[in-house]
Amino acid sequence: MKTIFTIALTLFTSFLFADSHIIVKQNGEKLEVNYVTTKNNTVYYSVSGNSTLNEISLFAIEKIIDKKTNSLIIDNHKVDVSGKTGYKKVQFLTKDQTIGLQQGAILKTIIHKPKGFTKSDWIAEALTNIKKQAAKQGFPFVVITKQTDSKIEAMAYTY
Prior knowledge:
alpha+beta; Dodecin subunit-like; six-stranded antiparallel β-sheet; signal; 2 domains; SH3 type barrels
């Protein structure tokens, strides 16, 4: 209730100050908005003249600039997944964390079950294979779409 009240109050007062922030997305696109808050890797903002509260993934944003003070509120850098160890930088996201990112390729891997390893070891190896596939194709983000005992399917995302 406290959070809802805070967001509502901030949204109401944001109309008094038109377009006080600039959101620069990772793809270079700029949006002039009223920044409201950031919660659970999601940025909430409103556009002047519209009472709708919009949201975008924090991962899709390069920076948010306060126009009054010219200071950075959020400063993100692109994830570089190139090179042999680039797969270690690939991040698993949930579906709701992909707002503002672009869908890429569908990735699939089979869960191998060698003797002497636990189920968690099998899954960890399969997830590493998904990360390597994503990095090889240049995708820094992955969302698991289907997981069974024998295979994992995922959707890769980019900026």
